[in-house]
Amino acid sequence: MAGSRHVSIPSQLVQSESWMTANDEPGLTSIIIPTYNRAGLLLETLNSVAAQRYRPIEIVVIDDGSTDATEALIRSFERHHRGDPGLSVRYRFQPHQGAWAARTLGLRLSRGAYIQFLDSDDLLHPDKLARQVVVFEAEPTIDFVWSSTGSFHSAPDWHATPVVGWPLAAQVGRDIVIAFIAKGRWKTESGLYRRRACRRTGPWANVAMFQDWEYNIRMLTWSPEIRFVPGLLSATRQHDHERIDDAWYTCRGIAGALRAVTLVEQQTREQFGTDSRWKAAIMSRYRQLSDQAADCGFSSLAARADRCLAMISPGD
Questions:
Q1: What is the structure's pLDDT at 178?
Q2: Share of the chain above pLDDT 70, in %
Q3: Confidence band, pLDDT 50/70/90 cuts, at residue 275
Q4: Does the first or last residue of the chain, that is N or C, have fewer Cβ atoms within 10 Å of its Cβ?
Q5: Residue 240 has pLDDT above 70, yes or no
Q6: Element spanning 277, H or E
Q7: pTM greater than 0.85
């Protein structure tokens, strides 16, 4: 296929489980929060973690090169909660590399049996962990659980209509992978991973867009056992501060999205490439990127997306 495109899966995505320790603290949930200059929003996110009915929790904050008061805020939060024996806070600063690097470092530093990824401007429902961990405890074969996610500006409405995250009904096995390629089925904060699932899936990919989409498809390709837990248990904040979606209008962002789609194409082609639904889903993604690049005036990027599309569907 696409060997003529000379795009290979980067070495950090090779599915080796040695990159992340298998040792975990039973029952502990590690909440990994990458952050960059979000001191004005981060406290509310941290408070939503502290409000969880579930314990024990470790918060792993990876500060991706912030120049604001992020560290001081986290130190203050840690002091305020020292009386809670079931809540610990770990802080690590790294030079600015991006959320993908922060999440991967957070995984390496984590000690929990369960892993929650949480962006530094979003919130968890107080029952989120309690309702999802109980599934793991009842069914040791389960690798991943997820729930619905809502959207908010000032305060979340936990009874609102979800913006993403409905049960997939009959979509299992190859069907769920193809469905996810066509449209992501849950948000970053929606799910909870058993540690072994993160080890097997590997580090996060170095892409500027579609990071969680690529990561979850990579997980789904090895057919994990997954469950849906009903309820709106997380919320994505809508605000005017810088956020990942802003990259959708930049050359770097669209190039990152194109890289993510190329990775997904390569990772799924051998298993799903003869399925017409897979072909349609991948082609739709390349068309979307071509159109977005053209609309933003990035003609060379649009041409790259068109070349990828042509290699999926020669002669179309």
A1: 92
A2: 89
A3: very high
A4: C
A5: no
A6: helix 276-295
A7: yes
CATH topology of domain 24-243: Spore Coat Polysaccharide Biosynthesis Protein SpsA; Chain A (3.90.550)
Per the structure block, which two tokens stand in for 94?
A: 């790294």
Question: Rounded to an integer, what distance in angstroms lies between the CA atom of residue 189 and that of residue 290?
Answer: 28
- Domain ranges in the chain are 2-8+245-312, 24-243
Rounded Cα gap, residues 50 and 72, in angstroms: 18
The values of phi and psi at residue 287, to 5°, are -65, -40
Q: Which residue matches tokens 């991948």?
A: 282
Alpha helix ranges (H) inside 51-127: 70-80, 99-109
Tokens of 120: 């530094």
Residue 291 is encoded by which pair of tokens?
């159109």
Q: What are phi and psi of 232, to 5 degrees?
A: -90, 100
152 contacts: CB under 8 Å, gap ≥ 6:
123, 160, 235, 236, 237, 238
Contact 74, 47 (CB under 8 A): no
